[in-house]
Amino acid sequence: MPPTPTPLRRALTASAGRAPWSAGPWHDTLFVSAGAALSVPLWAAVLVPKLLFPLLGLVLLSLGLLSAAQRSRMRVLRGVEIPRRARDGRGPLRRLHSPAARRQAGYHLVAAPLLAVGAALVLYGWGVGLVLATVYGWEWLMPPGSRVHADNWLVPQEVLVTLAGLVLLAVVPYAAGRLAGLDERVTRAMLGPNRAEQLERRVEDLAESRAGVVDAADAERRRIERDLHDGAQQRLTSLAMNLGLARRTLKDVPPEAMQVIVDAHEEAQAAIAELRDLIRGLHPVVLEDRGLDAALSGIAARAPLPVRLDVQVPPGIAPTVEAVAYFTVSEALTNVAKHARASRVDLSVRGRGGRLRITVTDDGVGGADPAGGTGLTGLRKRAASVDGTLAVHSPLGGPTTITVELPCVL
């Protein structure tokens, strides 16, 4: 394990990285100078009053291009990616009313010109420092008799000038680094998304990723259902048929052997029934073959209490939403049968305004509490997996109404 560097060593390392002959200060200078070059139109407007209004209008109309150039500068010279804001389809002048456009205008009209002044001072410091530090080099190129020429190398004035140039060359790298850091922070803050926009974009990304996870999970359930239906279920069915055939045709076997065949036949039939229930729980075949309407009719037919259906399913519902609707209705009817002590259930499924509205009403005792562990929490999570909502109205004495709204398309 390498030894921990001492504070002195860290200071010397940082100073070496800021030396005038190192790459860091020159890279910082190039970075801030490139930003200053993009502010030339505004400084031209300031220096030439007649060009003020035309160039200001040009800057406002070309905010997108100027911002793209600044983002490219940050990406190429600084390795920083500043995301672009989404286009809203409005004209350049109308887009100025948005907070992001106002931040861009403030950057190009105020912040960028001020940063350009700092870049000019850094360049001026480099130039002056080089000239002063090399005074002995270029002074002897002057003609004899000039005011700055001297035969004595140790003229106090020239020594002081050289020392001043060296000090300036030692200070400018730090100034360039500080200015480059300030430039990066200001550009990030004013051309990039603010905190609210970052959170909004994060929510959109999470919603997209969640929709992808839900679709992938539904596709996986479909695959498992197909594999079980075409593989294990077919083998169990063949086994049950062979055992049944042996049970009916073999008459001369001992009673103990026949009892083994009978038990195996019944176990195979029970395994087939359990496997069918498992397949139906993963993804019902009827939902994919005949649609949500027929699948809900099958749920109502298998319910342990009478269910009155009113189903009008709009076309174009996403398969994942259909699966969520199917399992939501199935779980809701199971909860009613277990807890509501109801004699009948009304089930309504209708599409309206791009939303699928599911209403389950029973005439039970009421008092259903989503926090009471009655399965309503699971229903709410299942609906929320596709950005749906669930509402429960269940006064004591009933009736209980569960309303679920799902988006038709993810």
From TrEMBL:
<dbReference type="Pfam" id="PF02518">
    <property type="entry name" value="HATPase_c"/>
</dbReference>
<dbReference type="InterPro" id="IPR050482">
    <property type="entry name" value="Sensor_HK_TwoCompSys"/>
</dbReference>
<keyword id="KW-0472">Membrane</keyword>
<feature type="domain" description="Histidine kinase/HSP90-like ATPase">
    <location>
        <begin position="320"/>
        <end position="410"/>
    </location>
</feature>
<dbReference type="GO" id="GO:0046983">
    <property type="term" value="F:protein dimerization activity"/>
</dbReference>
<dbReference type="Pfam" id="PF13796">
    <property type="entry name" value="Sensor"/>
</dbReference>
<dbReference type="GO" id="GO:0005524">
    <property type="term" value="F:ATP binding"/>
</dbReference>
<dbReference type="InterPro" id="IPR003594">
    <property type="entry name" value="HATPase_dom"/>
</dbReference>
<keyword id="KW-0547">Nucleotide-binding</keyword>
<protein>
    <recommendedName>
        <fullName>histidine kinase</fullName>
        <ecNumber>2.7.13.3</ecNumber>
    </recommendedName>
</protein>
<dbReference type="InterPro" id="IPR011712">
    <property type="entry name" value="Sig_transdc_His_kin_sub3_dim/P"/>
</dbReference>
<keyword id="KW-0812">Transmembrane</keyword>
<dbReference type="InterPro" id="IPR036890">
    <property type="entry name" value="HATPase_C_sf"/>
</dbReference>
<dbReference type="GO" id="GO:0016020">
    <property type="term" value="C:membrane"/>
</dbReference>
<dbReference type="InterPro" id="IPR025828">
    <property type="entry name" value="Put_sensor_dom"/>
</dbReference>
<feature type="transmembrane region" description="Helical">
    <location>
        <begin position="105"/>
        <end position="138"/>
    </location>
</feature>
<keyword id="KW-0808">Transferase</keyword>
<keyword id="KW-0418">Kinase</keyword>
<feature type="transmembrane region" description="Helical">
    <location>
        <begin position="51"/>
        <end position="69"/>
    </location>
</feature>
<dbReference type="GO" id="GO:0000155">
    <property type="term" value="F:phosphorelay sensor kinase activity"/>
</dbReference>
<keyword id="KW-0597">Phosphoprotein</keyword>
<keyword id="KW-1133">Transmembrane helix</keyword>
<dbReference type="Pfam" id="PF07730">
    <property type="entry name" value="HisKA_3"/>
</dbReference>
<feature type="transmembrane region" description="Helical">
    <location>
        <begin position="158"/>
        <end position="176"/>
    </location>
</feature>
<keyword id="KW-0067">ATP-binding</keyword>
<keyword id="KW-0902">Two-component regulatory system</keyword>
